[in-house]
Design brief:
Among the domains are: 2-61, no CATH class; 78-215, 3-Layer(aba) Sandwich (Rossmann fold), CATH 3.40.50; 219-327, no CATH class. Helix content is 47%, strand content 10%. The chain has helices spanning 2-8, 40-49, 55-58, 102-105, 107-113, 133-150, 166-179, 196-200, 218-226, 232-244, 263-276, 285-295, 309-318, 333-343, 350-360, 372-379, 393-416, 426-438, 442-451, 454-458, 461-474; strands at residues 87-92, 151-161, 182-189, 208-214, 250-251, 254-255, 297-299, 302-304, 381-382, 388-389. The longest helix has 24 residues, at 393-416. The protein starts with a helix and ends with a helix. It binds S-adenosylmethionine (SAM).
Amino acid sequence: MKFTITACLIMGTKMSRYGSRTGNVSGTLYVPSLIKCLNMLEYIKRKLYGAKGIVKPLGTISNFKHGDVFLQTNSLDDILVMPTNSVDYIFTDPPFGANLNYSELNFIWESWLKVRTNVKPEAIINKVQNKSLLEYQQLMTECFEEYYRVLKPNRWMTVEFHNSQNSVWNAIQESLIRAGFIIADVRVLDKKQGSFKQVTTTSAVKQDLVISAYKPKESFKKEFLKKAGTEETVWDFVREHLDKLPVIVEKNGMLEKIREREPYLLYDRMVAYHIMNGIAVPIDASDFYSGLDERLIKRDGMYFLYDQINKYDNVRIKSELEPIQFNMFVDDEKSAIAWLYYQLEEPQTYAEIQPKFMKESNAAKHEKMPELAELLEENFLQDDKGKWYIPDPSKAGDIIKLREKRLLKEFEEYLVGKGRLKQFRTEAVRVGFARLWEDKDYKNIVKVGDRLPKSVIQEDDKLLMYYDIALSRLE
Ligand SMILES: C[S@@+](CC[C@H](N)C(=O)[O-])C[C@H]1O[C@@H](n2cnc3c(N)ncnc32)[C@H](O)[C@@H]1O
């Protein structure tokens, strides 16, 4: 009875809209100018016995045995009744920043039920509750830590995500990593029908994203910590991670490029996992990239384990086209280099690349983006016909080292200066933070971090990771 009544409540309020099929405007407490008057008794009857009525699915309840289903309404940061390592799979649809004020929206039925949500652990961004992005991220981390605890090792969690703001997206990823999860895949979920917010807010992401993350095997984590300080942690991580990633991803009959298998992202994940576990990263980027070539097999710019490659090759032979790279945005130096790597799989002259680059490139306001010529000079090689090409692994190491040296020099200027930094090379800050981290110089990470616009740190997963952890080390 309570379930039925609460399901009908909204339609008995002034929020029920005249001329609307669905009734109220979902996700908001909105009183329209024209109200629909309903005979509530008739409405309850329809809700119970109509085509989509409540009674129908009630009939299937007898199919469940006692103990098949377990419902809990606790806050996720308080599920101690659930044993550690007991859950096979988690699907979660967490709150996204300030999108919806759940507890406030529940007010109507909560008043009838005489139960109120305890808003203290509610993971949202909300001014009235004094919760900013920082508090939201902290609450999400506490929740994900519980997910991590109850999930069996070597098992997966799927996190649905929709929000237009990069900062919230990064807060979620940061919370996941801090809780110990390893992110293995991010893709678009096609829900077909847009929600209220998605249709009405122009800046909203039209499609939802899905993050797949896993809890590594216990033996892996133990070994990883035991081997701290040796290079083995790097390659153990890469092998473990590649083993988890899909080998083939097809979309509309075409092979899709698996970004997680590309060197840049593998490097990022490897570094993040070391840092989150409080372990120094034992090798630099150039040794990492050449190490990948020595130890693994490369196809179409992606890396595979020896026992995965047959499966990939078999499918690849049948597909005539190269795998497709989706969603390449060029908004900073890092993404510009990734874009150039993709373009220069076939060597090209400056004149050939330049118009394409102009079309794609849209640098953020704070980004001191180097000129295309400089990007080519710093990261690629030129043949005698003037065509730029990707350096082979034996030479790539030297190029990366030279570039890092240049970036560090630039970073030194940020280190000694004072006041707000308005325009800077984000890549230089990334490389600088990594170096300071190596030297355990957390104070200077925070010092430079505080000179950057807040939004830049919140919107850059790497900077956020270093800054956040450096801050916690200083506390
Ligand atoms: C995006 S909604 C999930 C919607 C759900 N999948 C559905 O289709 O109805 C996020 C939910 O997380 C809940 N939530 C917020 N903080 C929480 C916490 N600390 N523990 C558990 N749930 C929380 C919110 O009340 C909200 O119901």
